[in-house]
């Protein structure tokens, strides 16, 4: 049984989408990876902000 | 000495007032008319609505801030605009009605040289029978998180639902839009995932059926016709991103829905295919539709000239192309750039108060003729940027004369950052962080998606959550005009 896939069976709508697996979920709370993403997102947001003014 | 009057001290009005005062100095007068004595950082109301923040953490008293800045503060509601002045005196003025304790209801005429309308939305609860109380306020069957007071009440009701769930009573939670023409889906989106997160923390998730209802034609439309982002080497629609998030958290959805009636524990809704349905709930947070606040404007001779300043929906007419016609003809250039009223060059609108030329999402109507489509969002970042551009223009007009080139801030050349965060803990929350550039798609410049996919992205994780925390503190710091406030971008 793959726990992450159980929700596919809960509704027709759910069945037609994509669900994150164990790895994708773990990366969301992996502090080192998220620190890196924090920097990347900040840079991207700052570019969007500077392009908007 | 020129006098700039700003109606509304929210995100846009506060930005206009504080920058205008900084740039104009003491030689000119800046006046803010706004009814609440407390400033509210509205995005964090979500956390108040799930009991993770106190009202006092998202609000602060305005008077000391304006006193420090040298801004004249009138705690009042603006009611009418007289842009031509009166017989025998051309000085334009507005009428304001005090909301201050001790002077409540007293009226005053306030003259101006330049006027900025930044009054945001009227929360039009009464547009849906049962959603309002029939007197312009929220009714007693659902809750809202649109104001800090609403959010406090929402949390009280949510706590009762969690307690019943703990006692073994299954509970139905419904979150979304309370009308077919609502905007602000992002706020409801953030709220539903905060409820889901808190329910897990409280150990009651298994006892809750959590459902989303919205007027979007597809999940992830957000009133912007959706967006495309790069994920894992693909460029994908926000529909896939949003559906995945809902399915993962076991949140069912009803979309393309116009909530037509609210009763005790039940709503009626119409779908885009014209069919009517009912949905029961124990707790419902439904965002009301927005309209303009409903000003009246009068000519010198007392004739009603409201239609020169406002569209029928109450939002202010600015330099937009309002006759663009059918969806196929819509262009990015239809969107306003300077926010100046075409009839009166000394009047501007900023933030939600300006009338958009048309929707951003594709217009949709049910076979019964009911419009079921989101109206365009004007979120915090655009509201702030527009407020600053308007301040710039007015300051230039005051200093260099009325024929200066005005500053521009089109939503078709501006991005927006949005972080929908679930949970408040620094290590256990997650957030969907999204940026979109530009807000209004420009299919001539970016054929295909209408947007620059280098800067339009979304991802879920702790990083976005940290950003949300930082934004909360940064924007309150900025609004309080603490040291370095001008360095913090809108
Ligand atoms: C729950 C919630 C969450 C949100 N989250 C986000 C988010 O995460 N990110 C984001 O970018 N945006 C978010 N938004 C949207 C954001 O709050 C708005 O875009 C922003 O507040 C708009 O600024 P504004 O100045 O146009 O209007 P407002 O901030 O609403 O300000 C309008 C002001 O005018 C005053 N006023 C009203 N009538 C009168 C009158 N007659 N005379 C004088 N003053 C008057 C009001 O009291 C108010 O102070 C959220 C909105 C909500 C409701």
Automatic annotation (TrEMBL), chain A:
The protein's name: Uncharacterized protein
From TrEMBL, chain B:
Regions that span the bilayer: none
Origin superkingdom: Bacteria
Residues in FAD/NAD(P)-binding domain copies: 3-147
Pfam families in alphabetical order: Pyr_redox_2
GO terms, molecular function: oxidoreductase activity
InterPro entries to which the protein is assigned, alphabetical: FAD/NAD-bd_sf (IPR036188), FAD/NAD-binding_dom (IPR023753), SQRD (IPR052541)
PANTHER family: FAD-DEPENDENT PYRIDINE NUCLEOTIDE-DISULPHIDE OXIDOREDUCTASE, PTHR43755
The protein's name in its UniProt record: Sulfide:quinone oxidoreductase
